[in-house]
Amino acid sequence: MKVAIVGGTGAFGLALARRLVEAGDEVVIGSRDAERAREKASEVGAGAGATNEQAVGGVDLVVLATNAAGTLSTAVDLAQAIGSTPVLSVASDLRSSDSLSLAQRTQDLLGGPVVAGLHSLAAGKLAHGRPDEDAFVCGDDGDAKALALELAAKVVAGRALDAGPLAGARALEGMTAVIVNLNKRYKGHAGIRVTGLP
Ligand SMILES: NC(=O)c1ccc[n+]([C@@H]2O[C@H](COP(=O)([O-])OP(=O)(O)OC[C@H]3O[C@@H](n4cnc5c(N)ncnc54)[C@H](OP(=O)(O)O)[C@@H]3O)[C@@H](O)[C@H]2O)c1
What we know:
Layout: E1 2-6, H1 11-22, E2 26-31, H2 34-44, E3 48-51, H3 52-55, E4 61-64, H4 71-82, E5 87-89, H5 102-109, E6 114-117, H6 123-126, E7 135-139, H7 142-155, E8 160-162, H8 169-186
Parallel strand pairs: 1-2, 1-4, 2-3, 4-5, 5-6, 7-8
Antiparallel strand pairs: 6-7
């Protein structure tokens, strides 16, 4: 699979890139600064680094991994370059009081399908190997969701789980706040494993 990681110079994008490169995927690191993208790409053994706009060309899946505050403006800026390519939004806005998720608002700005996922995976753990956790993906487009689930299955030691339609993205995005609070309260590194599924 060929994957572009927009905002791939950050903690989460780079950690994801490491796991995808390890799994044999072709990864392009995107940044607002091409030079920074190239530096970070070579740091994680990714094939290429480029501006976000160049990175999204000709890939199977775009991972939107800028910091949360930059998600929607980046979607507007890249809408034409992304076209109908499927997008995986990993963004969690911890301070948002909007009833629509960032992923749903991103979907409204782009022409192609948007799915949401991987919110419960901490960059710090992902950077050091496949975490012993499950990963969740939700979305309305079956093909885009299948691609995102395929990606998710490569980066966790647990399962990649289909968490239903894109309407569920608000709940997935909220998981980050829950995990942050658990880590603070119990001074740990919480992750999620689902029980009771066949
Ligand atoms: N960190 C985690 O553990 C974690 C876990 C799950 C999900 N997430 C989600 O993953 C995403 C990335 O998290 P992160 O911790 O990697 O964030 P980050 O390091 O703060 O930012 C990632 C990249 O976003 C780009 N960026 C910053 N401000 C921007 C703006 N205004 N417009 C466009 N691009 C901008 C920067 O790249 P350039 O300057 O190179 O363009 C930066 O390296 C977030 O949406 C977060 O909610 C994070």
